[in-house]
Amino acid sequence: MADLIVTNVRPHGGAAVDLAMKDGLIDAIVPTGGEAVADRVLDGRGLLALPGFINAHAHVDKSWWGRQWVSYGGEATTQGRIAHERAERDALGIPSVDATVAVLREFLRHGTTATRTHVDVDLGVGTRGIESVKEAAAALDGAVDVEIVAFPQDGVLRRPGVLELLDRAAEAGAASIGGIDPASLDRDPVGQLDGLFEIAARRGVGLDIHLHDGGELGAFQFELIADRTIAAGLQGRVVVSHGFGLGDVAPARQEALVDRLAEAGIGWTTVAPVRTAPLPWRRMLERGMHLGLGTDGIRDLWSPFGDGDLLKIALGFARLHGLRTDEDLARVVELATSSAAPFVHRGSHGLSVGDRADLVLLDAENVPDALVRTPRREVVVAGGRVVVEDGELVI
């Protein structure tokens, strides 16, 4: 007997079915209308069904969500944001388990059931942030599947001891280690990348590098990353986050870079921020690159914006890239759901038998309608457990 059956739902806007779930997985899919027998039966009311959203780029360790409003301060540059965060985070109790739980609950409210999150590792906090995130995920009993990237927000080589911290984090179980702006922040792209790749290869972990640098400076670092990925045999295990420079360069240069990145099996995550250049996303997908969407920080010392709704990020991506057709709009929703599976090390993530029982129900006619209206998530099921009902958290 199933643990949970959700009746009368329309996967991706198609024909109505019943979804049976057992032991946290989708166990059976049958036409709706038959007798449903399970520990619990939930009426899906003919709502549109999507897989749970996968947030491929988050920072859940340093939000002030749910706390007193914090006014924006410091300089509006990468260096300025880092300095401001270092100066103010202790006063806000960052990192903390409670704040991280609050963010993860908002993820669930909006239908996100898995996330790849960067967690700061530096000389000020050590690896405390990683422990806080692990404890927060455990407090929600795994409702959000959390994958951790140990992230050197304040730089790598310019802070002696950070490479050792990243090595310790990898040894302790971080799925990936991170890097940030090897050229403009550390001012030693070869040194930073060589150090990071050595740890990743030796520890058998992934590598995820924030790259804010634009134009040819960014392009130069993409080439360095691709070269090292191939040399180290890490194809499929390296991700570039943001990568604004790819949208800045001339079309022929852009095409050649995508081909090289695809050859190296580099994945890519974007938060589709306003006022940035569109990515060559069609060519990236055609060449087999994995492309994921993320929320980035949510109400933190970098920005007061964000609420954890990945569907809104997908809408921003569609607007940034001027998308209009049903096919394109539906493809963007796939970026936020099923095709983001590799970012959390899943072989598949969807509404098929054997997939983790992550389900989001929305009152929408079809997938494009859901994207452009971003209606509330009526029901969210995470790992076979109902966590949102009638739009409200129940955990």
Automatic annotation (TrEMBL):
Signal peptide from the UniProt entry: none
GO MF annotation, one: hydrolase activity, acting on carbon-nitrogen (but not peptide) bonds, in cyclic amidines
Matches recorded under Gene3D superfamilies: Metal-dependent hydrolases, Urease, subunit C, domain 1
InterPro entries tied to this protein: Amidohydro_3, Metal-dep_hydrolase_composite, Metal_Hydrolase, Metallo-hydrolase_Enzymes
Residues of the Amidohydrolase domain: 104-388
Classification via Pfam families: Amidohydro_3 (PF07969)
PANTHER family noted in UniProt: BLL3847 PROTEIN, CYTOSINE DEAMINASE
Name of the protein described by the UniProt record: Cytosine deaminase
